[in-house]
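[job 0412] stage=fold_complex status=start
inputs:
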Amino acid sequence: MNKFIHSVQLDEEACTGCINCIKYCPTQAIRVHNGKASITPEFCIDCGRCLRYCPHHAQTVSYDSIRDIRDYRYTVALPAPSLYAQFNNLKNIDIVLNALLSIGFNDVFEVSAAAELVSEASRAYIREHMEDAPFISTSCPAVIRLIRVKFPTLIPRLLPIKPPIEIAAEIARKRAVKKTGYAPEKIGIFFISPCPSKVAYVKSPLGIEKSSVDKVLAIKDVYPALLEHMTDDESRLKPLASSGRIGIGWNNAGGEAAGLITDNYLACDGIMSTLRVLSDLEDEKFHGLKFVELNACDGGCVGGPLNVENPYIAIAKTKKLNRILPVARTHSNDMEDLKDIDYRWNECIEYEPVFRLGESFRESLEMMGLVEELTEQLPGLDCGSCGAPTCRALAEDIVRGEATRNDCIYIFHEYIGSLSKEISFLTRSLNLSCSNNDDSIHLLEDYIQKLTTELSKKER
Amino acid sequence: MEELLTFNYTIPGDDFTRAGEASSSVKNKLKKMGLDSNTIRKVSIAMYEGEINMVIHADGGTITVEISSEKIRMILADTGPGIADIDKAMENGYSTAPEEVRSLGFGAGMGLPNMKKYTDYMNIDSTVGVGTTVTMDVRL
Ligand SMILES: Nc1ncnc2c1ncn2[C@@H]1O[C@H](COP(=O)(O)OP(=O)(O)OP(=O)(O)O)[C@@H](O)[C@H]1O
Ligand code: SF4
Ligand SMILES: [Mg+2]
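[job 0412] stage=fold_complex status=done
writing structure:
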């Protein structure tokens, strides 16, 4: 299975080559060459940060269409808890869940209900493995991908528990099979996602071999479809909701940690802050921590780029909704079919040293020496005109053979200057040695002279 | 023995917001060189402790990191107050860190012992009133 399947993609036509995005990518995965941006698949973690900064909306997310429900005999929608935070004054989750049935799904299973089970399983796991703490949450796939390529020493700290979307999908399929008698593959499990990283997770999962989710839809696509079908006439609502504050709280930063009921945790949101926390965690700068919750998006999952609502308003709405909800409504000992769920990962995450310069240490060391030398020679402006986010990144690209010194416009500028000076000198000597002084040589000389002065004027 | 690559850093004194920049820069470079993660961790932790000590106790200094195919050598030199009793400074829990530094979570007196623990060789050369040079090696 390809470990680097992505949902974040570039729309070549929309891309103007403006270099806005290259500076914002936390793994420096984007380069602009020949007027078009491209993403290095091994470096990209599908965090979606570039989506927010592209003024031309050239970064897009590939996900599925609601029309795909026709491909299945029976479909179950798995709404992410962020979905509830998109609506104004939502007083009853059943309004949203019933609307999902109205737009064509046969059944729903809340990811927030599965989150309550995952909270329970995580509490038990941490209690039994206290000596290996602190554990790092594994519900944000972008964070796992980041650790996988950049923080090898932290891989053993990853909490080896399946994320709520996976548990939700497993339960949903099992229940659907039981209810309908259809073969499992005739049942379509549709996750409604707040972010691209969960789309990528379904295509190329982490910690398990294959995801039970079949299709992923974007909240921003489903939201307008739901609006038409929402009714608060309680008599017409089927009671479907089965999650409480703990499960729904997973939609924002700190929610997962709160479900663990421990004080010794750290919750961090935003990919740049996450990078800093991981680096400090690697250097053992925190003491006594049991759990580290990391969210790639600002504000947590409600900050995912496939949401509609502003993340901070979404958090406020979640708080308001949570006031009327019980603490938790789904427990593993509630029902027979919840008792035998296997929460544990069954595949290891392996370090992917994609940022390594050479094949061996020796080779990498030499290449690093060249990178240092080249970085010294570059102007150090980090202007991005070369298509790389920093001068050092260009130096690395050059050493890797993916760019040349002349990609730097300042070096190129100097180069052109020296070239034209040479040509000028050449034509002058041509002039002196030749007796047939025709006009074209004069003209050429004048032109080159002009070019040289123009270029040297620009030199600072 | 041949020395293959050298990095030099100047550590400003009394700027806690920048303390750790040098060690994290070295860490990132070592990762790009494909060193095994345990070695990187040792270098990074030892160098960070030394860097912080220079900021807290010695008003900054310089750090030189030399990488060869055999080892990584870190030389941390400052012109601070020096250490009067090195053996005592090496004891777990010994610290002269002032109160305002302790309130930031430093001053447990564990820096030097950890530097020793995470490296294969460590030497402190210090003269009161002149300065301190700490040399540490992590073998590859
Ligand atoms: N570069 C230095 N210059 C002068 N004194 C130093 C230097 N490095 C360490 N010391 C002295 O040695 C003592 C012990 O250092 P150590 O790093 O073990 O503990 P600490 O810095 O006080 O606390 P911690 O490192 O746990 O935050 C310091 O309190 C200080 O008195
Ligand atoms: S999704 Fe994130 S990691 Fe991938 S290119 Fe965009 S900003 Fe970089
Ligand atoms: Mg110290």
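[job 0412] summary: Chain A has 16 helices and eleven strands.
[job 0412] exit 0
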